[in-house]
Amino acid sequence: MQEVITANRLADGLVVFLAADGGWSEDFHKGAVIEDPAAKAIALDAAAKAADANLVVDPYPIELELRAGHLAPKALRERIRATGPTVRVDLGKQAEGFAPTLAQRG
Predict the structure, then answer these.
(1) Which residues of 58-81 are buried (b: 16+ CB within 10 A; e: fewer)?
(2) How many helices, marked H, and strands, marked E, lie in the chain?
(3) Which of 28, 45, 52, 97 is 20 to 30 A removed from 67 (C-alpha atoms)?
(4) Is residue 106 part of a domain?
């Protein structure tokens, strides 16, 4: 199972993803993909330290799935958190190019 760690940045409340370099990114595509339990434990430990340092709040892993040839959050709630408003694609992360790539509606 592939996962990524997400949280909210404490300074402004924005959804962020734990990157491979240990930092946090608003860009879903820069989130470090976790593929095994050992890597997950290390990532959750790093996320807990960031929470203890008041950088983020409520870090947790989310499951990913392959959609339209790209990894995207499996749960609808997490797709909305990663993408932004569902009624206005000109706002939020989809407008900035930070959202997961999903299947085109036809």
Answers:
(1) ebebbebeeeeeebbbbeeebbeb
(2) 3, 5
(3) 45
(4) no
Residue 74 within a domain:
yes
- pTM for the whole thing? 0.84
Tens digits of residue pLDDT in 24-64: 999 999 999 999 999 999 999 999 999 999 999 999 999 99
- pLDDT higher than threshold 70 for residue 105: no
* Cross-strand bridge partners of residue 90: none
**Residue 104 reports pLDDT greater than 60:** no
Residue listed under structure tokens 């206005």: 88
Whether 21 maps to a domain, the answer reads yes
Number of domains in the chain: 1
Residue 53: domain span: 3-96
Report helix, strand and coil shares of the chain as percent, to nearest 5.
Answer: 30, 30, 40
